[in-house]
Write a structure and sequence with these properties.
This protein has 308 residues and is mainly α. The protein contains 16 helices and no strands. The longest helix has 32 residues.
């Protein structure tokens, strides 16, 4: 099949892929496929003008709904929820804007949707945060008796309060995660189909601004000195800001390790092992965040480059 014919069939292929992804969300593979829900839509948007994209998107949803009936309505709503960040990212991709601009646009759009959902829910008498807390409580109460017997009421209430106070962190992390997955995997597929999606700079070149070091140190000191057993606004800021800054410096540490193996021409297995260690031994994240902190504070990379 030559390039022209393949180009004509690409929208159909992506529509079929999208229907398969939507169908997979109601299967045991949902924890994997839900991560890919934006990629086929982005590929369609990049390959078609807006009118043909809208038609292809609606046909895909129509085929899915026809195959599942009323049972597929929830997934259709989920699909519509992820549409605005796709349009935001695709808009800047088509304008050949830097990838960072498209990623930020998609992230802020998704964050805005989540915040808007919380606000609209409250306006209509539905409190999503309270419902989330109730869901967590039901989950804890459903644990085996040997576990629930060791969970006193004060501990459960404190855990639920802490989790609900971290809703802003979850919103940011959720948005960044989905947009980055869509950018990295989507770019790989889309570029191979003939369209062009610009890439982010190599991770080894990423550098956080030095001003974040002071914010991180101030937040760290406040986090250790202010008790978390209150519902004050300052406590909520600390509970959300500290893990966000910690995660940012963890990423900085990974960037440093990738830079190190690049300059020294070593195996990339070391950064991969570092990520695996942080996943399976979460306590090590604080050590890596300190490495990222030192990388921003001191000219370590310049000294390594001079020695090389």
């Amino acid at each position: 099949m030559n390039r022209t014919k393949r180009s004509k069939w690409l929208p159909v292929i992506w529509m079929i892929v999208y229907v398969i992804v939507l169908l997979s969300i109601v299967t045991p593979l949902n924890f994997i496929m839900i991560n890919l829900i934006m990629i086929p839509v982005l590929a369609l948007y990049m390959h078609l003008d807006f009118k043909r994209f809208a038609l292809a998107y609606l046909i895909s949803l129509g085929v899915y709904y026809g195959l599942t009936g009323g049972l597929g309505l929830v997934v259709v709503i989920i699909s519509l929820f992820f549409l605005p960040p796709v349009l935001a990212m695709g808009h800047f991709y088509k304008k050949r804007a830097p990838a960072r601009t498209a990623v930020l646009a998609g992230t802020f759009t998704l964050m805005g949707e989540l915040v808007l959902g919380l606000v609209v829910g409250r306006l209509f008498g539905f409190d999503p945060i309270a419902e989330f807390g109730a869901t967590v409580r039901e989950y804890l109460e459903a644990l085996p008796p040997t576990v629930t017997e060791q969970l006193n009421k004060d501990f459960v209430d404190a855990m639920i309060r802490y989790i609900t106070q971290m809703i802003p962190f979850f919103i940011v992390a959720f948005s960044v995660y989905y947009v980055m997955i869509t950018h990295w995997l989507g770019r790989w597929f889309i570029n191979r189909s003939g369209d062009i999606v610009p890439g982010l700079p190599p991770v080894r070149t990423w550098r956080l601004p030095k001003s974040l070091v002071w914010y991180y140190l101030i937040v760290m000191i406040l986090d250790f000195t202010i008790p978390h057993d209150s519902n004050s606004f300052l406590v909520m800021i600390l509970i959300n800001l500290f893990p966000l800054l910690n995660l940012a410096f963890v990423v900085q540490a990974i960037s440093f390790l990738l830079y190190l193996v690049h300059v020294k021409r070593k195996s990339k297995a070391w950064p991969i092992l570092a990520v695996a260690l942080m996943i399976f031994v979460p306590a090590t994240q604080y050590l890596f965040s300190l490495l990222g902190l030192f990388d921003v504070m001191f000219p370590i990379r310049e000294k390594i480059a001079d020695k090389s």
